[in-house]
Amino acid sequence: MRLSVLIPTYNPDCGRLTQTLAGLKKQTLDTCNWELILIDNNSSNNFQARLDLAWHPSAKIVTENKQGLTYARLRGFNESTGDIIVMVDDDNILNNDYLEQVVSIFNQSPDLGAIGGKSLPWFETEPPAWLHEFHVNLALRDLGDNPILSVWDQKYPDAAPIGAGMGIRREALESYTEKIASGKSKISDRTSISLSSGGDNEIVLEILKLGWQVGYCPQLQLQHIIPAQRMEVAYLARLVRQTNKSWVQLLQSHGINPWRRISHLGVLPRKIKAWFIYKAWQSQPSYIKWQAACGLYEGLAGLPSD
């Protein structure tokens, strides 16, 4: 199986991106068996001039002018030629055997459409003691050392792959790429001005609904670089609020939303009540959790009327 590695990026930190590329350069899978595609999502910081991709015989940079992670990924899917696609963020450092493991897993499991593994933190500065409560929001994950397989059963699986390091069988992507290209998706994802998310989850749901399995495979491990800015309370509060709002929209669009719509008039009273329930004034984690609740209420108020 030939493999394609996609790195979507927008105004990347060149130091972190260089670490990501260094991790790829050390892969045990020979470069003749995989291609490297970096998708520049209309950056303005001229980072391309500082990159060295000469070490890879099948590396290229393409530009996607339409802003947003979803469009950058779609461009990468369309540009790639591999039977397997691995999505790598510009702050991920894959273990040396990551690509080789991906190929092996897909070869051994023909029913798997998408896989992921452990996303372990590489903190650039000392994290606050409470940060572990929000690891999932920072795309950090360790579900143990046993594999977990999931099939479609009218809900989103807890062990579904996350975007960082997700391996995808190309033929399992057909429904998703058609949906995005046709404009039928209502899910917003990261842009230069928004922390909304849902693109990873929509990929997983479309793959599951086609009848494929998805899996958590602990032998797949990467390090996710977490800079100081992403550990700040203001950033985390904004992240969880926008993530929860888009999460409601995602579940609704796939008919698996477990909550009822609320009126816009009911949002403020709920936020005030949640302020006291979470004791948002008491600690930084409490405040962040209150912001998460606010995002949920905003998402429920934005649902269409019956």
Automatic annotation (TrEMBL):
Keywords, in A-Z order: Glycosyltransferase, Transferase
InterPro entries linked: Glyco_trans_2-like, Glycosyltransf_2, Nucleotide-diphossugar_trans
Record-annotated Glycosyltransferase 2-like domain positions: 4-118
The enzyme's E.C. designation: 2.4.-.-
Molecular-function GO terms, alphabetical: glycosyltransferase activity
Record CDD domains: Glyco_tranf_GTA_type
Superkingdom as given in the UniProt entry: Bacteria
Pfam name, any one: Glycos_transf_2
Name under which the protein is recorded: Glycosyltransferase
